[in-house]
């Protein structure tokens, strides 16, 4: 199947998904219907995955050449009830599903049961469950919550992860039933796309759309995919501990997994650590990891990174984050003598340097980190920020600064940049196999404001070539191969030069303006040529106007 056909399939899927969300928009706010829709999408996905495995297993049990083969002659023949019952019993053995990383879905939690009964339970009804027992259901929401509870109870990885909120939703039960029927049309099978890839696309699309719907609040959990990709490509998290202290829905972890797979690495070589304050977003991130089979440690509970650090002893090899920009009053309950503030106490009115120092505190001696911050972080001298930045530069912790173009975010127009820091600029070999040169006393500045394209009237995005242009400049500079300063784009500066700029880290100050090809034509000659050209164009315009008048007159119209 061609890439165009795959894209057409995914575009059709997006339309169905947003139609599903529209079913709820009149009765629930964006934050609620986000989790309502995504919870049902997750339920449909695990049920479909279970059914796909069950179908494959059925074939294997009937295939004489397969290890799982059940010989019909041992059970009364191929068409006998005994053989059919034996096959059915075998299909309910959990080990068959666990061995291929498929979640066990109890019969009363399978999608068919929900779809068959969602109309019946409106207003309350007693149902006969697949195991023969009966249970009273008070609503459609109760039916869904029961399914989620059973899945969570039978899968240790999902303990406390699923958002069982449907019984409490203040929503027309018939509308919730309609939503089940609509989500039922979402396919998680495709000729050339893996079901996990389809689900990943679903989550990315929906999170982006919800970020638009929620406005500024969306920034608490959603980072554009292209920016996540850029940071992951530049850091190359192949092996070790990966940490995001403001993880949202886990986008950096998902992109790290894709990067590793694309470069023939092993996801088992990476350990995932994260923290998130918002409970439902914490659940969403855990769900995001669980469906991909990624082991993770998100702490014992959702909690504030500042006051309830879930990983106090962690020293990570890669730290990546998009924390909330310019967060105020972040320091309630935080000590001024906190050991994380090694380079200065961050101001109460802005958390930018609190996030940065928290990440540095958790960075391993050979670790690397990248974080998105508002542009003000590169130049502000307000309330100790300038002093902290100066200390970071003097300690030679800053490795690269990237200025980003505007309009990349769905939920804020604040200009942003990416800080890349490391505790070791010595010669060494990275987990990705890159042989880095000694970069002590140097900082790379990249001005990427001219890159990207407008994907619609309000949002800008990066192409793969844009990402590679920035990434290649960084890696080539690190290795000392095929690197040269490019006016207007990239410049390697020494600490003494940065000191002359009062420790301001804005790339535009260092890369300068792009070289413009010199115009060798003398001004007087150029002016005469352009004037003659303009005169000719006016004369041609007059001629065309006369032709139009003649044609109109021939048709009986007066001009």
Main β-sheet description: 9 strands, mixed
Based on secondary structure, the structural category is alpha/beta
Could you name the CATH class of the largest domain? Alpha Beta
The order of strands across the largest sheet is: 5-4-3-6-7-9-8-12-15
Integer tally of domains: 3
| Shape verdict | globular
Straight-line distance between termini: 58 Å
Question: How would you describe what is shown here?
Answer:
The protein starts with a helix and ends in a 5-residue tail after the last helix. It has 559 residues and is α/β, with parallel strands linked by helices. Helix content is 42%, strand content 13%. The model is unreliable at 216-221 (pLDDT under 50). The longest helix has 32 residues, at 30-61. The protein has helices at 3-25, 30-61, 81-90, 95-98, 111-117, 140-154, 173-183, 195-214, 225-235, 251-262, 279-290, 352-361, 385-394, 464-479, 495-500, 508-511, 523-554, and strands spanning 125-128, 134-137, 240-244, 270-274, 296-297, 316-321, 363-374, 398-403, 416-422, 428-429, 435-436, 442-447, 453-454, 460-461, 490-494. The protein has three domains: 3-201, Ferritin; 221-511, Vaccinia Virus protein VP39 (Rossmann fold), CATH 3.40.50.150; 522-559. Helix 1 packs across helix 2, helix 1 packs across helix 8 (195-214) and helix 9 (225-235) packs parallel to helix 14 (464-479). A hairpin with a 5-residue loop joins strand 13 and strand 14.
């Amino acid at each position: 199947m061609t890439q165009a056909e795959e894209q057409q399939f995914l575009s059709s899927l997006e339309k169905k998904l947003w139609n599903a969300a529209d079913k709820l928009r009149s009765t629930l706010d964006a934050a609620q219907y986000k989790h309502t829709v995504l919870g049902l999408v997750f339920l449909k996905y695990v049920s479909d995955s279970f059914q796909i495995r069950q179908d494959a297993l059925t074939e294997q049990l009937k295939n004489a050449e397969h290890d799982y083969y059940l010989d019909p002659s041992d059970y009364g023949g191929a068409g006998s009830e005994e053989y059919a019952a034996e096959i059915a019993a075998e299909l309910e053995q959990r080990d068959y599903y666990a061995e291929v990383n498929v979640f066990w879905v109890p019969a009363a939690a399978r999608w068919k049961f929900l779809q068959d009964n969602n109309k019946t339970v409106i207003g309350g009804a007693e149902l006969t469950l697949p195991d023969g027992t009966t249970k009273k259901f008070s609503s459609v929401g109760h039916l869904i919550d029961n399914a989620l509870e059973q899945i969570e109870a039978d899968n240790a990885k999902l303990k406390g992860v699923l958002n069982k909120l449907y019984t409490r939703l203040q929503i027309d039960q018939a509308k919730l039933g309609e939503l089940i029927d609509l989500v039922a049309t979402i396919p998680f099978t495709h000729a050339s796309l893996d079901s996990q890839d389809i689900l990943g696309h679903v989550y990315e699309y929906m999170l982006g759309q919800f970020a638009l719907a929620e406005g500024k609040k969306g920034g608490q959990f959603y980072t554009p995919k292209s920016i996540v990709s850029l940071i992951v490509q530049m850091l190359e998290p192949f092996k070790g501990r990966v940490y995001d202290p403001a993880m949202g829905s886990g986008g950096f972890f998902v992109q790290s997994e894709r990067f590793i797979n694309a470069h023939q690495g092993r996801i088992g070589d990476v350990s995932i650590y994260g923290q998130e304050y918002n409970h439902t977003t914490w659940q969403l991130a855990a769900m995001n990891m669980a469906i991909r089979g990624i082991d993770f440690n998100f702490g014992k509970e959702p909690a504030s990174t500042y006051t309830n650090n879930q990983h106090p002893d962690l020293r990570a090899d890669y730290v990546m984050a998009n924390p909330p920009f310019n967060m105020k009053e972040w320091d309630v309950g935080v000590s001024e003598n906190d050991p994380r503030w090694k380079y200065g106490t961050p101001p109460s009115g802005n958390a930018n340097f609190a996030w940065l120092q928290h990440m540095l505190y958790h960075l391993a001696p050979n670790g690397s980190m990248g974080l998105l911050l508002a542009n003000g972080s590169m130049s502000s001298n307000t309330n100790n920020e300038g002093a902290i930045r100066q200390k970071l530069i003097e300690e030679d912790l800053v490795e690269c600064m990237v200025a980003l173009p505007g309009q990349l975010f769905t939920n804020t127009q604040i200009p942003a940049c990416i800080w890349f820091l490391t505790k070791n600029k010595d010669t060494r070999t990275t987990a990705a196999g890159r042989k880095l040169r000694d970069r002590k006393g140097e900082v790379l500045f990249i001005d990427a404001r001219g890159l990207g394209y407008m994907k619609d009237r309000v949002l800008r995005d990066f192409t793969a070539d844009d990402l590679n242009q920035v990434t290649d400049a960084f890696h080539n500079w690190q290795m000392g191969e095929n690197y040269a300063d490019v006016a207007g784009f990239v410049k390697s500066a020494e600490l003494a030069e940065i000191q002359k700029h009062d420790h301001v880290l804005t790339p535009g100050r260092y890369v300068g303006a792009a070289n413009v090809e010199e115009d060798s034509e003398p001004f007087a000659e150029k002016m005469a040529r352009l004037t003659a050209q303009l005169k000719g164009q006016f004369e041609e315009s007059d001629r065309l106007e006369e032709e139009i008048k003649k044609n109109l007159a021939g048709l009986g119209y007066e001009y």
